[in-house]
Amino acid sequence: MKAKLIYEISLSLLMARWKQTLVAAIGVTFSITMFIALLSFMSGLNDLLDGLILNRTAHIRLYNEIKSTENQPITLYSKNSKQHNFISSVKPNNQLPQIHNSAAIINALKKDARVLGVAPKILAPIFYNVSSINLAGIVNGIDAEEENKLFSFQDYVVEGNYMNLKNIPNSIILGKGAAETMLVNPGDIIQITTSNGDQVQLKVVGIFQSGILEIDKAQSYTSIATAQKLLGESNNYITDIQIKLNDILLSPIVAKEYQQLYDVDAIDIQTANSQFETGSSIRTIISYSVGITLLIVAGFGIYNILNMMIYEKMDSIAILKATGFSGIDVKWIFIAIALTIGIVGGLLGLLFGFGLSALIGHLPFETASLPTVKTYPINYNPAFYMIGAAFSIVTTYFAGYFPARKASKIDPVIIIRGK
Amino acid sequence: MNKAVLEAIHITKYFQDPVRVQVLKDIEFSLIEGEFASVIGKSGCGKSTLLYILSTMDTDYEGDLKIDGVSMLQKKEVELAQVRNEKIGFVFQFHYLLNEFTVLKNVMLPGEKAGKFSKNEIESKAYEKLKILGIEKEALKKPNQLSGGEKQRVAIARALINDPIIIMGDEPTGNLDKKNSEIVFDIFKELAEVYHQALLIVTHDIEFAAKTHRIIEMEDGRIINKSVLPTKPIGNTG
């Protein structure tokens, strides 16, 4: 009853100055609209850029680095004697960068509950033969199905079908840059030279475009079996095991664990790509601070309008107090005015913000480096709307609180006697 | 029956700014039900200051004030607001009506604040009060569409809405012409004699004061005469 009365009074005061009220509400609407649109767009862009790396990078990569052994034979020999060994010209021993016992490791990994998926890979350096010129390149032997499951491989295959890699023997998917240099299309046969010096003919079954020019120029994909054949290795030869986890944040810990458990080298995504986290968080900070600045400016607008209203309505405040409204009642009348502006302006802002981000989300955005992206990326995260709503209410409450406190302290005697 | 509705006990007040000046000196008097009293005195004698202390709006004084037998000394701001709401009706020199609301709503506001009746009951009470003052036809107009005399009558209706035990007026006829002053006086008189309403009116209109039941005369912050005029009986029932 009492709250209803107070709200009724504030609404009438508000309607009496509806033009200024409208301007104040538009201020809030505008700032919330921009806040939502800015954050949705920025965050969409962040996700896109992160996705560029994250989607095609394994959370953990197991491999065997070619390096000299830490324990040279001499250290075993001189274990208990007090002597220092100086060895010069240490060489790594004669072994291939393969993961030993890869099949067993893959089976064990697949049983680990933390692991989302496992994809084996073989890296083989090759030369593409274009007439008499040799171009250096790297061929990745992959399991097409697993690769697609973990890294959305088909998104990057712009021509041909990725599954042909599995279905057609001796096939290859070339990078777009390499294909252009060699002037080949799917269906053509190319010739490559392996690191052993063998020349092999492969059928082009597709073209892929990763968006990173250097990769597209040099890299190509083939099946695991073909890669093993190219290298002249047996069918248990694997150089890399790529792992995706259910929780990406666990990767540093799990990487360490696997390194010890399987006696291989392991690198996690955070260590490998630490610069992306920094970029994302800075972009987020910038968009939040711009949004919040807009809101605070809108808050000052409300503060000004309420202050003016209080000077105008001194008489009304005085008579309300004389007829039995307490200071607290008067304070709530003005806070209710501010909150009404905030809630109405904020709600409209959320709607317009959604509209604006949807509009941006439909603008064409075509770039050669991102073949799968056709429009500007937008992240419709409900959290932004929550923050926007909460912030519009909090700012307007404070913008209203100080003028309202002033109004509550008005001494009716001074106003009435002053007449 | 004749119980005191308002008692001023040794009320003393100083103005601190710019120098300490005593404006009220040991004011002591009481007002009983149905009494129509006027406070007169020259400008600056402290009569308005006294009225605002008696109205509980000014709390910076020494001495004690009892309204309806209850001391106001220990009360908080919210409680004093409630006392003003329920027990005191005000009429000022200026009408102080809110132009955003209709006449009816203006009268209803203090009633709704008190919250003792439903909205419909308050509305019918407001009509009743407007009828007493003869302006029920203007109920749905906005205050700025009324004449000065009518506005002042609306202000009186607003003062009456919660059936206060006392009506206080600060020069209520100060802005009115002779004809309207007489109308207002007649209304006050009717309230006192028919409805046994206690009234305390500050005025410098000697003619107006002379017609009231009792004249309290002030000079230099003191009451110099608080006689009850013998010609007028107080409360002719009971």
Notes on the structure:
The complex is a heterodimer of chains A (419) and B (238). Chain A is an alpha+beta fold. Chain A is built from 17 helices and ten strands. The longest helix of chain A has 39 residues. Chain A is elongated and about 105 Å long. The model of chain A has no long low-confidence stretch (mean pLDDT 85). By secondary structure, chain B is of the alpha/beta class. Chain B has a single domain, classed as P-loop containing nucleotide triphosphate hydrolases (Rossmann fold). Chain B is built from seven helices and ten strands. At the A-B interface, helix 1, helix 14, helix 15 and helix 17 of A face helix 2 and helix 3 of B.
**Rg of chain A to the nearest angstrom?**
34 Å
Which sequence of SSEs, written as H and E, runs from N to C of chain A?
HHEHHEEHHEHEHEEHEHEHEHHHHHH
Uncertain regions of chain B: pLDDT < 50 for 5+ in a row?
Answer: 230-238
CATH superfamily of chain B: P-loop containing nucleotide triphosphate hydrolases
Quote the distance from N terminus to C terminus of chain A. Answer: 33 Å
Can you tell me the overall shape of chain A?
Answer: elongated
Largest sheet of chain A: 6 strands, mixed, barrel
Instruction: State the strand order across the main sheet of chain A.
Output: 2-3-8-5-7-6
